[in-house]
Amino acid sequence: MCLYRIDGAYFATSNRCTHGQAALSDGLVLEGGLIECPLHEGTFEIRTGRAVGAPCTVALRTYDIKVEDGSIYLRR
Amino acid sequence: MAVAQLSAARIVVVGAGQAGAWVARSARLTGSAADIVLIGAEAHHPYERPPLSKKVLLDGAATGIDICPPEEWRRLGIEYRPGAAVVSLDRGSREISTDDGRRISYDKLVLTTGGRPILARTPGFDLPAVHTLRCLDDALRISACLRPGARILVVGGGWIGLEVAAAARQRQAHVTVVESRSRLCSRSVPPLVADCLRYLHASHGVRILLNTSIQRLSAAERGVVAELSGSNPPETADAVIVGIGLEPNVELAIQAGLKVDNGVVVDEYGCTSDPDIYAAGDVTNQPSPWAGGRVRLESWANAQNQGIAVGKTLAGASQPYADIPWFWSDQYDVQLQVLGFPDPNAQLVVRGETGQNFCAFQLVDQRLRAVIAWNRARDLKLAKRLMTDRTPVSAHALANEAIGLESLAS
C-alpha cells in the first residue's frame, strides 16, 4: 500500500507498480498528482490510478479513504 | 499548422519491438486518426526485451512481458501484423512488401527494425551449442540450457553476458565468462564500477577470464571444447552464450538509398533523409546534446522514448527528442543504473558504500556528466533532475550522505 498526502488530501494506491517489480513508495511524486515508478519511470495518476506514462499500460489499484478523528481508514 | 501538414492517411511501422510498439501507441494516443499498421517479424505480440536476460531465463516462460494487454492493439485501432518480414521498400511508389508477397502503401513510414547480435567469425561459432540472445525464442532456448550442474561458457563480459551469467548461477550452473578486454563492461562504466561487477560475480562463483579470447570451438562428445588465448587450458562447456554486441538492421534503409552511417541517420525528430520516413530505437544514429555529437544507443529507454517522440510528431505534435541516455541492469540482488555517458576524464565522486549501495557521480565543471547508481534508484532520479537542469553541484555535497540530493536542486 502506498499512502499520499497532496495539498492536504489523502490518497492510497497499491504499492506495486503494474509494470515491473518495484515499490512505488520509493518513487517520486511529480507535479500534476502523478507518482513515478523508481525503476522505469512509468507514471500513474494518484487520484484515479490511471496509467499515464510509458511503460505503464495497466491501471494501478486505488483505495477509498476516510479521515476521522485523526485516523485514516482504507476500504479494502 | 503542423497537425494539418503531418496528418497522414496511413502510417506503417516496420518492427514491433519497444520502439515500434510505442511509435504506434503514441501516434494514436496523441490523437492521430491515421490507419496505423504495425508489422512484426516475430509471431508474438509486442513484448519488452529487458526480461529476456533476467526473468525469462530464470522462469523458462514468457509471462508478464507484453508491452500492453494484447487486446489493446485492436482497441486502439492499430493493425498488428505478426510474423511478417519486410523485404523491400520503394520510396517512389511509397510502398513496402513483405515476405509473403503482400504490398502495403504508406504515407509515413517508420523504421524500427532494431538490430541483431554480432556473430564472431571464430571457427566453431556456428555449432548448435552456441547461442545468442536477442528475441524471446532465443531466451527460451538458453533458459533450457541453464540446468543445475551444466557448464555454461559466456563470451563477452558486457551487460547481456553478465545478466546471463547471473541467471545461470541462480540456476546452479557452472559459469565461466571470457572477456577480451581488461575490464567488464569497459565501454560503459568506469573502472571502479567494473571492479564492483567483477567482485559481485566472483562472490557468486562465476569464473571470469579477462584479456582472454576464444580461438576455436570444437564439438565434443557432450557440448563443445573452447581453445582459449594465452596459457589458459581448454574449456569444456555444455552451452556457449555469445554477447559481443549488436549490429543495426539497416538493410532496408540502404536498399532504399536513405542516409546510413552506423545506423539510420535521423534528426532530433527521428526523421530520416526522406521527409516521409522516420526511424526510432536501436537502429538510429541520432544527435544527442549529452554526447556532444551523434550516437547510436542500444537501450530500452531510448527505444521507447524516441519511439514516443516520433509517434507524437506523426500525430502533429512535433516533439524533439533529447533525453539523457539511461539504462539499467539487474544482476543477482543488484540493480545498476547508468545515466549519461561516463567520461574517463571526469572527476569521480562516490556517495555511499562501494559495492553495497552507492552512487558514482562524474563531474565536469561542477556539472553532472554521468551517474551510476548501485541499488540507489531514488538517488538516480534526483540526480537526473540536477543533470537535466544543469544545476552546479559540489563534490563535497555529493559525497556527504548527510546532505540529501533533494536539497541540492536550485
Describe this structure as you would to a colleague.
The complex is a heterodimer of chains A (76) and B (410). Chain A has 76 residues and is mainly β. Chain A has strands at residues 2-6, 9-13, 28-30, 34-36, 43-45, 51-53, 62-63, 65-68, 71-74. In chain A, strand 1 (2-6) and strand 2 (9-13) form a beta hairpin. The radius of gyration of chain A is 12 Å and the shape is globular. The termini of chain A are close together. By secondary structure, chain B is of the alpha/beta class. Helix content of chain B is 24%, strand content 29%. In chain B, helix 2 packs parallel to helix 9 (300-314). Chain B is globular and about 60 Å long. Classes of the chains: A mainly beta (76), B alpha/beta (410). Chain A binds chain B through residues 22, 26-28, 36, 38-41, 54-55, 57-58, and chain B through 22, 25-26, 48, 67-69, 72, 300-301, 304-305, 308, 328, 335, 377-378, 381-382.
Task: Explain briefly what this protein structure is.
The complex is a heterodimer of chains A (76) and B (410). Chain A is built from no helices and nine strands. By secondary structure, chain A is mainly β.
How far apart are the first and last residues' alpha carbons of chain B, in Å?
37 Å
Overall radius of gyration of chain A: 12 Å
Work out the oligomeric state of the chains in this entry: heterodimer
Instruction: Provide the β-strand percentage band of chain B.
Output: 25-35%
User: Helix amount of chain A, in percent?
Assistant: under 10%
Q: How many H/I helical runs of chain A? A: 0
What is the number of beta strands of chain B?
26
Domain count of chain A:
1
Most extensive interface, chain pair and sizes: A-B, 13 and 19 residues
- The third-level CATH topology of chain A is Rieske Iron-sulfur Protein
Given helix and strand content, the structural type of chain A is mainly beta
Poorly predicted spans of chain A: none
- Would you state the CATH class of the largest domain in chain B? Alpha Beta
Quote the average pLDDT of chain A.
93
Number of distinct helices of chain B: 11
Widest beta sheet: strand line-up of chain A: 3-4-5-6
What form of chain B results from the Cα inertia axes?
globular
Mean pLDDT of chain B: 95
